[in-house]
Amino acid sequence: MSDKQSVNQILTAPLTREHMPTTTNISLSSYLGRKAFGDGWLPEEKRIPESFGPRQAMAGFEEIYPNIIDYIVRITYKIWEDRDIDYIGDTYSNDSYVFDDFGLQRGNKKIIADTYATTGAFSDIQLITDDIVWAGNDELGYHTSHRVYMVGTNDGDSKFGSATGRRVKVPLIANCVAKDNKIYLEHVLYNTAALIQQLGLDLKQTARNMVADKSTPGWPRDKHTWQNLRQAGSPRQAISLAQPIVGFDPDAFCREAFSSTLGKQTGADLSLFYRADIEFIGSNNRQFTGLDSYLSLLKDLHIALTDCNAQVDEVYWTGNEVEGYLTSVRWSLDAVHSGAGVFGEASNKQIQFWGITQHFIVKGKIVKEWMMFNELDVLMQTMAD
C-alpha cells in the first residue's frame, strides 16, 4: 500500500447525515452516569462502570465491547493504565495511518514503541476520558473524537530531556476511525506545547533544538502528507450541501462558525454562534471564560497568520436539539507567518496549521469549546531553513 495513494480512497468512506446519532443513550455521560449530556470528567467519578451500556451493532469487534463508547474507554484504560501496551497490536491495524502534531506515523509497531517510551517517562500516567463524540456504524467504521486529559509525573527521561519530576495535566484530542476492532485512521493532537511548558522547559528553545536535531519522526511534513492529512475521511461535499435539511443543522452551523473565526481575517458577529459566557479550553494551557477573551485569541492568530487558505475537513456530531449537540470539527489552513506575536517574530514562512475543535451547542449557541492545534509544529516551521 503506497503512501502516494490518496488516503481517502484507501481508508474510509465519509460520513453522511444518517450516520449521526440523534439520541444520547450511547454517550459518555450515559455510560458514566453523569448528571447531564455534555458534562466533562469529574475527579470523583468511577472511570470504568459496572455496566457497560446498551448493545449496538459491533460486528468484527471483540464481544466484550457492547458499544463504541465502551470500546474507546476500555481499550484506552487497558493500554495505558493496565499497561497492556502490546494490546495496541489488537486494536490498531498493522498499516494504520496516524497523523499527529508533526507528521504521519505508520503502523501499530510505531504506536507500541511510542507508548512504551511515554510510560517510561511518566510511570504513573493516566489517560482520563473527558468526553467522546461519535458517529458511524460497524459497516462504514465508527468515527470517534476522544477528548482526554493526560495526567502524570515526569519521573523518567523523555525525548525532551532528563526527568523533571514535574506533574502534568494536558488536554488532547484524538479523532479515530475503527472497524473490525482496529483503529486504522487517526488524527491526534497531543498538545505538545502545553506539555513542554508544564515540564518547566522553554518552548521556543525546545522547538529550536528539535529543528536542529532533525530526528522528529514525520517532520517536516511534506506536501503529499499534508494533502492526505486534510483529505483523509473528508466528504467530497459538505453534508449540509449534499443533504440539506430545514431547521438547525450542526454541519452548516459548525462550518459557518469556523468561517467566521479562523476562516476570515475579520469575523462576523460571533454572538450569532457563541454564548457570551463561553467556556474555552485550548492548546498550550489556554483556558478562559467569555467572548472577549475568545476574540483576543482569534485576533492574535489572525495577526500572526495571513493569506490563509482555510477549510473544514470533517464535521460529525452526537445529540439533538433538546439535550444539545457535541460536535467534532477537524480543520486546516495554509498561511504565511507574516505577523509577530503568538508564534514569535514574523518569519514570512509558509505554514501548515491544523486543528480539531469540539463544541457543546445548546439552543443554537456554543457554550463550551475545546480547540487543539499543532502549536509546537508551527513554531518549528517558522524556525526551519
UniProtKB/TrEMBL annotation:
A Gene Ontology biological process noted in the UniProt record is: polyketide metabolic process
Alphabetical list of Pfam families matching this protein:
SnoaL
> Which superkingdom?
Bacteria
Q: Which InterPro entries match?
A: Cyclase_SnoaL-like, NTF2-like_dom_sf
Gene3D superfamilies per the UniProt record, alphabetical: 3.10.450.50
The protein here is known as: SnoaL-like domain-containing protein
What species is given as this protein's source?
Answer: Brumicola pallidula DSM 14239 = ACAM 615
